[in-house]
Amino acid sequence: MAGGVSLARFGSGTMRRRLGAGLVVCGFGVAAMAPAAAAGRVDVLYAGSLVGVMEHSLGPAFDRATGFHFEGYAGGSDALAEQIKGKLRPADVFISAVARVNTQLMGKKNGNWLNTYVRFAQSPLVIGYNPASRFAQDFKTKPWLVALEEPGLRIGRTDPKLDPKGRLTLSLLARVARAEHQPHLVSKIFGSPENPAQVLPEEELVGRLQSGQIDVGFFYSLETAQAHIPSIALPPALTPHATYTVAILNRAPHEAAAHAFVRFLLGPEGQRILKANGLEVMVAPHQTTMARPAGAGSHTPAPMP
Questions:
Q1: Are 30 and 108 in a shared domain?
Q2: Contact present, 69 and 40 (Cβ < 8 Å)
Q3: Residue 279 is part of a domain; what is its CATH number?
Q4: Number of compact structural domains in the chain
Q5: pLDDT at 122
Q6: Average pLDDT, whole number, for the chain?
Q7: Predicted pLDDT of residue 284
Q8: Residue 2 lies in a domain
Q9: Does one domain contain both 137 and 193?
């Protein structure tokens, strides 16, 4: 798609293997890992807002440290969960930008794809704008809410039905509307929730802004920091956050690699990489332990950190 961000440029892989033996995760051991003579790959489905840190930082570092090979696929968290449930995209590890999405994969009626998850990082929602846009000066000099109402402004956001960031964006403006006693504010700025003139795939939003196809967009702070996009922090009392979670899927086809990836993500080097990319780490290494693979029997998850 013209002006979009192709995941091929990040080396994101399509996943073709069927799901194999069962695996349950209640926590993740995070002892420091030395380079190992491991072989094989780990397929990770992750929230599209993490594409930069996963493909350019954490994935390559994991490969070097373990000998396994990271293969990532980015997308909206809800859309990825639906692909897992529909057996359209097998994976070993699922990373969501909102904890609630994990419940879509829990329980018998949802296919028992996972039993538990760990919250590991968060990032606040911000407004990012193109510095070359004719509206850039408005965002530099006017209140952000006033700037968003400029005629002709091209706004980009993600689909609230497929991506948590899209829902958080609508939630943000709804909170502002109540605080400012402006009941029609959301429809005035966004039109309908699924307005096709504004809604874009999560993995394309940064590229659309950088290419000038939109003037302003709603992002997580790590996205604007990584892409060097000028951004506006929103009122702390109203600002929603992405809360990133990680889970190893039941029946993960690459069990050893999946455990190795999560250990690395939550370990000292993984946390260093997350912090360096603007994420606020939420879990300390000593708080978690690695679960043993589970067979066909039932399992009671340990409490979440």
A1: yes
A2: yes
A3: 3.40.190.10
A4: 2
A5: 95
A6: 83
A7: 56
A8: no
A9: yes
pLDDT (tens digit, 9 = 90+) per residue, 289-302? 333 333 323 333 33
Range of the structural domain that residue 108 is part of: 20-122+242-287
**Token match 């993740």: residue?**
28
Residue 31 sits at φ, ψ, to 5 deg, of -65, 150
Are both 155 and 217 inside the same structural domain? yes
The closest alpha carbon to 43, from 260, 291, 196, belongs to 260
The three-state (H, E, C) secondary structure of 203-272, written as one string = HHHHHHHHCCCCCEEEEEHHHHHHHCCCEEECCCCCCCEEEEEEEECCCCCCHHHHHHHHHHHHCHHHHH
The closest of 284, 287, 283, 271 to 53, measured between CA atoms, is 271
Positive or negative torsion for Cα 221, 225, 231, 233: positive
User: Is 12 within a domain?
Assistant: no
What average pLDDT score do residues 161-188 get?
Answer: 93
At 12, the pLDDT band (50, 70, 90 cuts) reads very low
215 domain-assigned: yes
Residue 38: band (very low, low, confident or very high) from pLDDT cuts 50, 70, 90: low
**Main-chain dihedrals φ then ψ at residue 64, nearest 5 degrees:** -65, -40
| pLDDT at residue 232 greater than cutoff 50 | yes
Whether residues 67 and 157 share a domain: the answer is no
Identify whether 4 is part of a domain.
no
pLDDT for the residue 90: 83
**Pairing verdict, β 231-233 and 118-129:** antiparallel
- Regarding whether 229 and 85 lie in a shared domain, the answer is no
